[in-house]
């Protein structure tokens, strides 16, 4: 774990001292958009048109943010058009690496480089900041298009439709305000909430995160009693964003991140909903529990210094979800 300072790697854990033991996620650096014709998107600059084989996605199978992009790649028919490189689950003093001694890792499929940070330095020899997955790379311009998962999935939702003929729309215009509001609530308290609880180095930092996390889970449990999906009768982007966090809840966040007021499987509606999402055609193939369980327990030395991988509950993800009745 570390970060780049003026192009030089420094092996440092998150600084929580200046924030009273609270984990604060840093702002994402690369914010351009792929669009059908290369016109600029909502941020960054233009010149990234949707083309088959042009873009490459660097992911970790362990990471919930990268996982979102893999789900959209699968559901939007982008697998033949966007290749991926999969980093090693152990994120230690060199950060994410392209070591290949773990099943499912690929190495750096484009340049054969040893570390993910080398990709960041390749575009900017003076790069500073965290080296995160996912990274969406442009083969033609030799640049990072985006390393912000929330925006990569919005691009994937529609930018390539002319190429793929896949018109599944997880962000329908009339639902967008509802989707955005849901995303915002769930990002702060759940997606990032589990990290704020897990990485806190003070009781106050932990308490401030874990309380709202379970308040939101309680609220979601009631909401999903009457609503098939988060924003109504259709699956939307909001569902996929929540899914990648909840699929990790019982195997990792409950114990490793101390989010243990309840197990996810103690919430009948949330648990059924999570299984439905898991069983959605194409999704189970994007879930790699071996990477997930290994990454968190092995990489976070401040939380689990002896790197003991817990036994973990046996979970039947294929148990019928029963959500048709809602
Ligand atoms: N805002 C980014 C966050 C991505 C992120 O934090 N990824 C984690 C993995 S789960 C990472 O690469 N962390 C490395 C670090 O912080 O040094 C996104 O959603 O794409």
Descriptive account of the structure:
The protein has helices spanning 64-75, 116-123, 149-158, 161-164, 176-191, 193-199, 203-226, 237-246, 249-256, 268-279, 289-299; strands at residues 3-5, 8-10, 55-59, 83-86, 129-130, 135-138, 143-146. The protein has 326 residues and is of the alpha+beta class. The chain folds into two domains: 3-164, Glutaredoxin (3-Layer(aba) Sandwich), CATH 3.40.30; 173-285, Glutathione S-transferase Yfyf (Class Pi), Chain A, domain 2 (Up-down Bundle). Strands 4-3-6-7 form a four-stranded mixed β-sheet, with helices on both faces. β1 (3-5) and β2 (8-10) form a beta hairpin. The longest helix has 24 residues, at 203-226. The chain starts with a strand and ends in a 27-residue tail after the last helix. Residues 1, 28, 63, 65, 95, 130-134, 147-150 line the site of glutathione. Residues 1, 28, 63, 65, 95, 130-134, 147-150 line the site of glutathione (GSH). It holds the Pfam family GST_N_2. Glutathione binds at residues 96, 130-133, 148-149.
List keywords for this structure.
2 domains; single chain; 37% helix; glutathione transferase activity; Glutaredoxin; globular; Glutathione S-transferase Yfyf (Class Pi), Chain A, domain 2; Thioredoxin-like_sf; four-stranded mixed β-sheet; alpha+beta; binds glutathione; 8% strand; transferase; Putative glutathione S-transferase; 326 residues
């Amino acid at each position: 774990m570390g970060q780049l300072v003026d192009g030089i790697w420094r092996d440092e854990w998150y600084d929580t001292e200046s924030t009273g033991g609270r984990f604060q996620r840093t702002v994402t650096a690369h914010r351009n958009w792929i669009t059908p014709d290369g016109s600029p998107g909502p941020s960054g600059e233009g010149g990234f048109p949707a083309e088959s084989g042009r873009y490459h996605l660097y992911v970790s199978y362990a990471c919930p943010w990268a996982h979102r992009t893999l789900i959209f790649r699968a559901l939007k028919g982008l697998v033949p058009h966007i290749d991926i490189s999969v980093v090693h689950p152990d994120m230690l003093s060199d950060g994410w690496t392209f070591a290949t001694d773990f099943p499912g890792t690929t190495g750096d499929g484009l340049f054969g480089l040893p570390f993910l940070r080398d990709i960041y330095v390749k575009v900017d020899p003076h790069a500073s900041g965290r080296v995160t997955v996912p990274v969406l790379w442009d083969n033609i311009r030799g640049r990072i298009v985006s390393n912000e998962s929330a925006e990569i999935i919005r691009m994937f939702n529609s930018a390539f439709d002319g190429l793929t003929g896949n018109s599944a729309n997880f962000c329908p215009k009339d639902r967008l305000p509802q989707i955005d509001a849901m995303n915002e609530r769930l990002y702060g308290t759940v997606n990032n909430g589990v990290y704020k609880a897990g990485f806190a180095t003070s009781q106050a930092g932990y308490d401030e995160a874990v309380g709202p996390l379970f308040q939101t889970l309680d609220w979601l449990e009631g909401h999903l009693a009457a609503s098939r999906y988060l924003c109504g009768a259709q699956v939307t982007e909001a569902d996929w964003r929540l899914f990648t966090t909840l699929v990790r809840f019982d195997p990792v966040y409950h114990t490793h991140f101390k989010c243990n007021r309840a197990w996810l499987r103690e919430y009948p509606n949330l648990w059924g909903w999570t299984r439905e999402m898991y069983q959605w055609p194409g999704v189970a193939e994007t879930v790699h529990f071996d990477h997930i369980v290994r990454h968190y327990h092995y990489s976070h030395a401040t939380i689990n210094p002896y790197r003991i991988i817990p036994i973990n509950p046996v979970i039947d993800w294929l148990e019928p979800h029963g959500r048709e009745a809602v």
